[in-house]
Design a protein that fits this description.
With 327 residues, the chain is α+β, with helices and mostly antiparallel strands.
Length: 327
């Protein structure tokens, strides 16, 4: 159900996972989260109507939720500019109120790509300035189909722009250049679901004061109970053998879009650290993915790179399955 994406919101580079261990994914029976009490009150996992499913670590539907090309000075500068613009736009819509979920999400995304604290604060201040004369940037979405070696690849392209005509022309040019076509907005909704996603640190801090803080591993049962109370619909703890530091291998929690802020607040009250939280378009079913061979993968990678290079494009969601991601 995961959608691979590109853009400044990406947390970690794509990794190859070839492990034989199993991992847990928690799926709620009831989508509306009407949780039934069980008799065993001592085990947090048995207090709710849950199904614990097992799958191979290499097939983790969350492990490849994001993609990020190799870092270099030009790409980093472009990435920083994009996330700073996103903060400014979010700040303008709420007059710099940090209680706003959109602004919190934009700031979290900026921190994930290591945007300096000073630039974050300046972007919030610029956006909150009522006398700012800059043109207002708005989010625009474009749906399209890109040719692949085994069928058409559905894409949802999100942009942040103050010039709709320029952005529409650029996106159309990049899509048609590869032989694709733009569709009416919303045409690909049947392939994707719009959800809230929260990335949680695997370490819990025992002291709120940063200089005195000590880290200890997250207790999965405690996190599970806290997440369910906050409205989580799907939780992926990953695998014990997944490699990468805490930022590259977070615990991933999914929820309804309307419940994202509630979930983040619930996790915070439980002492868990949400490193990033945002809205995503995820592929509804594995059957809707389009497998690519080496040649098709290289061609589509070039398309994604061209999208990354456009300053107005923030994120590209798609249902392509790259060779190393095929089960």
């Amino acid at each position: 159900m995961n959608a691979i994406l590109r853009g400044p919101l990406a947390l970690a580079s794509r990794s190859l996972l070839h492990h034989s261990r199993y991992m847990s994914t928690v799926v709620l029976h009831n989508k509306n989260l009407v949780l039934s009490q069980q008799q065993n009150q001592n085990n947090p996992r048995s207090r709710y109507s849950l199904q614990i499913t097992r799958h191979m670590a290499g097939h983790n539907k969350w492990s490849k939720i994001k993609r990020k090309k190799a870092a270099n000075d030009v790409a980093r500068a472009r990435e920083h500019t994009k996330v700073a613009r996103a903060i400014e736009v979010a700040s303008r819509s709420c007059q710099g109120d940090m209680a706003d979920i959109s602004l919190q999400s934009a700031v979290a995304a900026a921190r994930a790509v290591q945007l300096p604290k000073e630039r974050i604060e300046k972007a919030i201040e610029r956006g909150a300035n009522p006398n700012a004369k800059d043109e207002l940037s708005v989010i625009r979405r474009y749906d399209g189909m890109i040719p692949g070696n085994n069928g058409k690849i559905a894409v949802i392209i999100e942009t942040l722009t103050e010039n709709r005509n320029r952005t529409a022309a650029n996106v159309r040019h990049l899509v048609t250049k590869i032989g694709g076509e733009l569709l009416p907005t919303g045409a690909n909704d049947w392939l994707f679901e719009h959800v809230g996603v929260v990335y949680v640190s695997r370490n819990k801090y025992t002291d709120e004061e940063e200089e005195n803080a000590t880290r200890e591993p997250v207790d999965e049962d405690e996190l599970l109970e806290c997440a369910l109370d906050g409205g989580a619909t799907d939780i992926d703890f990953g695998s014990d053998e997944d490699e990468g530091d805490d930022a590259d291998n977070p615990i991933v929690i999914k929820c309804e879009t309307i419940g994202l802020l509630t979930l983040v607040q619930s996790l915070k009250s439980g002492g868990f650290v949400s490193t990033q939280f945002e809205y995503h378009y995820l592929v509804r079913s594995e059957e809707n993915k389009v497998p690519l061979n080496a040649e098709g993968s290289e061609k589509f990678e070039k398309f994604l790179d061209s999208m990354d290079e456009d300053m107005d494009v923030t994120t590209v969601y798609h249902n392509a399955n790259f060779p190393d991601e095929v089960s």
